[in-house]
């Protein structure tokens, strides 16, 4: 049987494309982890500074502050960044240390469902604060 050189090249190119896709996915996860970490840190510093310099004196003052649109958006972005940061970090731990495929898939599914539930709970809390 005659060897077909174009198949070897096509196979090697396919392999390179898979490696490139994985590298891009790894870079995306790395970038999400870093960007969310920076936002989380900045938001926590903002909260600490705000509460050290201008403490709410009553529940009504606290509610008025948290119900303001700018703070509401910042808290929502904080919650989204926290969920994304948790997903990337815990997903990487599961992928690195859980070897049996069935257990890994189950752990990732439970993690995803847990984070979706946590996100829904956060949205409910924020919705009530603004309602």
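Q: What amino acid sequence fits the structure above?
A:
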């Amino acid at each position: 049987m005659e060897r077909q050189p174009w198949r070897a090249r096509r196979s090697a190119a396919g392999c390179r494309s898979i490696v490139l896709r994985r590298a891009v996915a790894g870079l995306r996860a790395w970038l999400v982890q870093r960007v969310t970490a920076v936002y989380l840190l900045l938001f926590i510093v903002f909260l600490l500074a705000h509460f050290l310099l201008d403490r709410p004196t009553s529940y009504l003052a606290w509610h008025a502050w948290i119900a303001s649109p700018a703070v509401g958006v910042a808290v929502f972005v904080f919650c989204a960044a926290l969920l994304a940061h948790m997903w990337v970090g815990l997903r990487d731990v599961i992928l690195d240390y859980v070897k049996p495929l069935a257990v890994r898939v189950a752990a990732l599914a439970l993690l995803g469902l847990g984070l979706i539930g946590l996100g829904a709970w956060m949205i409910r809390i924020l919705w009530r604060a603004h309602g």
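Q: And what stands out in the fold?
A: The first helix runs from residue 5 to 53.
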